[in-house]
Amino acid sequence: MNDRLASLKRAWSCAECRKKTSFNRLSRLIIVTSSYWNLILVFALILTLNCSESAEVSSGFGLSGSSQECDTEGEVFPLPGSLENKCFTCLCKGGRVECEKQSCPSLQGCFLIVSDQKDGCCEVCKGCKLHNITYKSGAQIAQDCSTTTCSAGVLTRSPVQCYVPCKNPAPPKPGQCCPSCRTCYLNGREYRHGEEATLLGDPCVRCKCQMGSMVCSKNSCPVLSCPASNTYLEKGECCPRCNGSRTVYIPRTVCLLGEKAFPSGTSFRLDTCTNCTCMETTAVCERTACPPLECQPIHQAMTQGSCCPKCVEPEAQYPKDQCIFNDAIYKNEERWDVDNCRSCTCDWGKIRCTEQKCHKNLPCPWGYKLKYLPNKCCPECVGEDGVCTVFGDPHYRSFDGRVFNFQGACKYLLASDCRGKTFSIRVRNDARESRAFSWTRTVTLKVKEGRVTLGQKMRIKFNGKRVALPFGQGNLLIYQDGYSAMVETGNGVKLLWDGDSFLEVSVPHSMQGRLCGLCGNFNGNKADDFTTRRGGPANHPSAFGQSWRVGGKKACSRPEEVKGPEPLCQKNWRTRIKAEKLCNAIKSSVFSGCHKTVPIERFFKSCTLDMCECPQGRKCHCEVLTAYARACQRNGVDILDWREATGCSHKRKW
């Protein structure tokens, strides 16, 4: 516990499935004429909505019509009004109007994906920009005996290292950097004009036979934007690649590299061979290209503090009952691990290595996600944590993804281990100054270590006494996490509380089917989440919520039977305009990088609803923006500095 208190390691969990809506089938495309429009395109689309959580979406629509003729070959016909779709282009071809869906570029191997703001149709891999010149990811420019490569927001520049596999080579020809051999002989064979080859001992050395002469050079590998744990190297390949991807909104003053964010203008050393500088959102890295080595990779070793490997003495100089690898001596039949995926064995002076093969597209059952674990070579299906969210008036999202509103102003059982009785979470809702809505006022967690109370303005108590953070008791840990307080328990239950009304509860996958309360039973079926305390189904959120009420009437801030008046937005147009103005922040460019991943509709609706009954002096829209930013983060999209951009940095960051 002392180590945990010292490190305060953040532990984020992802339990929401990523939402995506995709066109599964374009069943019919018909063009009709109208007296008002010269040409109207009508689509009959069957949409498959690949969603794993509740969302308000409309199904496909269909209209009929007749084919439309056209005169000017190649003329573009725009889609008018509400039928406009930037993913489709309609042209006159052969006297008929034909429409084609835009072909999006492949994102395989790209770790940083951004939304294409120009057409709003395709996601694209983050490119690079330097001196007002923009490069697409994957672009490689050779100039002045150096190469510049753009890889997902990282621009790597390195000099070309020449390799000369012959004696008395010819000097470099005009426009070339390296000398050439007068014959095309390499790796024990002759190559013909135009053929390319790689050096057996170094796959990064590439040679090409041109008019009877062989020219060889070696480039350094580009710096990757993903963490080292997300890279893999194919057998026979020179450079590692990124595995997986993340969609990120990146401000113009930050570079993302690995697991870190660097402010623009910052210079840093990535490794002994690489120095980088953040220029706006592009990390510009200067990397040393190591010279080619004549020895096999198993006879190459790094020395401390050096950038490039060197050849070690060949194994023939050592006894046959031992092997040398990276300056270490291994006995005959001794086995050792090179990394998480490779292991080697000493076989009478010869080193024999094997590499574990992974299934990159291994399917996982519901509630599981493919993840790379520490000290593991291949990804494994790991059970995802369940996440329940409460915010605003309050709005609830259950562990299984059911979304509902419940404005009860009493004390309720939010979540509990109804089988093992290992924990329980109760919330007390307060009507504040509203007769229509309520907000979460306090949260009480009961575990074997004691009782934790999370109150307004970050007043945190343990067993009734105010405590300062960080605080630990047994396996219980409470600490600051940015603008919020994080509570971690020994059984894997975590609470994130912002000191106002936003609460996120996450539980480990092992608790599936054991839970009850307003957050549901966590059994993978959101249809039965409205199960009451007595075990029967409820038809309405109000009946479901009241069944989980605890405590007496003194815990209520207004009588249950009192029905509040219409929200202020119904009768006050100034309040309505203010609500829409503040809530439009969720539609702005600040969150645009997440719009395709987490739809904004229910969050915007919740925001305007909360703002209509927001007490004087409070920033109720910030609670909804907090909930949306967290939903984005759980789905792999980090929204940086959104509080400053939306005026929600009014809370002190401890």
UniProtKB/TrEMBL annotation:
Which cellular compartments is it found in? Secreted
Q: Where is the VWFD domain?
A: 386-557
Task: List the Gene Ontology MF annotations in alphabetical order.
Answer: BMP binding
- Top-rank taxon, per record: Eukaryota
GO biological process terms, alphabetically, are: positive regulation of BMP signaling pathway
Cite a GO CC annotation: extracellular region
Which keywords describe this protein according to UniProt? Answer: Membrane, Repeat, Secreted, Signal, Transmembrane, Transmembrane helix
Name all VWFC domain ranges: 182-243, 253-312, 321-382
Q: Where do the TM regions start and end?
A: 29-49
Keyword presence, Ribonucleoprotein = no
InterPro entries recorded: Kielin_Chordin-BMP_Reg (IPR052424), VWF/SSPO/ZAN-like_Cys-rich_dom (IPR014853), VWF_dom (IPR001007), VWF_type-D (IPR001846)
Q: What is this protein called?
A: BMP-binding endothelial regulator protein
